[in-house]
Amino acid sequence: MVPSLLFELMLICILGVASQWVAWRFRMPAIVVMAATGLMIGPIFGFINPEQDFGNLYSPLISVAVAIILFEGSLNLSFQELRGVGRPIFRISTVGAFIAWVLGSLTAHYIAGLSWAVAFVIGGLFVVTGPTVIMPLLRQAKLKARPAKILKWEGIIVDPIGALLAVFAFEIITFMTASNPEASQIIFFFAGSLFAIFLGWILGRGLGWMFEMGHVPEFLKSPMVVVVVLFCFTIADVIMHETGLLSVTAMGITLANMGIRSVSDMRHFKENISVLLISTIFVMLTASLDVATITQIFNPHIIGYVLLMMFAVRPLSIFLSTIGTGLSLNEKVLIGWIAPRGIVALTVSGYFAGVLTDAGYEDASILTALTFALVIFTVIAHGFSIGWLSKKLNLSNKGNPGALIVGSNPFTVQLAKSLKEANYPSILVDSSWENLSLARKEGLESYHGSMLSEQTEHHLDTIPYEYLLTLTHDKSYNSLLCTTFLPEYGRTNVFKVSPYTTFKDNGYSAGIVSQVGGRILFDKKFSLEDLIDKAENGFTVRQTTLTDKFTFENYKQTKDPETVYLFLIKPSGQLKFFSEEMRTIPASGDKIVSLTKGKEAEKHSGQS
Question: Is NADP given among the entry's keywords (predicted)?
Answer without folding.
Answer: no
